[in-house]
Amino acid sequence: xxxxxxxxxxxxxxxxxxxxxxxxxxxxKHARWLVDSGCTGLVALGSLxxxxxxxxxxxxxxxxxxxxxxxxxxxxxxxxxxxxTQEAVELAQASEAAGCxxxxxxxxxxYTSDWREMKAHVQPVIRATKLSCMLYNNPxxxxxxxxxxxxxxxxxxxxxxxxxKESSADVRRVTALKAICGDRLRLFVGVDDVIVExxxxxxxxxxxxxxxxxxxxSVALYNYAIRGETKKADQLYKWFLPLLRMDxxxxxxxxxxxxxxxxxxxxxxxxxPRCVLAGAERKAALETLKAALKNRPKLN
Length: 300
Prior knowledge:
- This protein has 300 residues and is of the alpha/beta class.
- It has helices at residues 24-36, 56-70, 85-98, 115-126, 139-142, 148-157, 172-181, 195-201, 215-227, 230-244, 252-262, 279-294, and strands at residues 7-10, 42-44, 76-80, 102-105, 132-137, 161-166, 186-189, 205-208.
């Protein structure tokens, strides 16, 4: 189906069975729940999806599960991340064959590349298919930073690059991209706790994390922000921020999966080297969630 870069698009988690094999049934159920709650697409195989711990074949099967489960209701986007450019290209092509509508293209894992190398990695991936592509910029996690001028260069040379997930947590980047690219690219916030500020700066979408457990609140917050309903957005944001900040720390995968488990949609199981939260970290997370659930707002 045609890719529409807009709205709240979850970076969906990957569910595992007790033996740590992929739980396709749970993934399908979770995906349908997110879409039923108003999400406009799904991104699989991102950082939150524990992409680095998945084998190539597992990634393709997850994409097929999502495409089948959603049956054209919303687009499925494949996160394309790999140690090697060749494998990233092959995954992009396999994603197209699996029925995906778009790609979210990441810089190479582990190796901290300069601009020439970054471009040499992402451009072949973007050109590997005819699918609509989003560039994922996350200098905090990946130690590579696509500057606005460099993103414009990629947009000028690749007509199927249509969107940017900006995760620098600096909303000035949204302003800068708008100034240099105009409406050429669809700009998405990629960090949960700057969504309201990002929309105010010109972003039109949200690749979200806590949406995996709180989709209705996430969609409502985005809608309030995009419609300029400031009072409603501020009230909901104030309640939501302690949870949204879980998306901004190294153990964000464990935190979000724990919250999913506690609200009855998923399990906290993570693949090694990650371990589930324990001790003071777990207690603090559960206390934050308990306080949020106690004061959970009623949405109109």
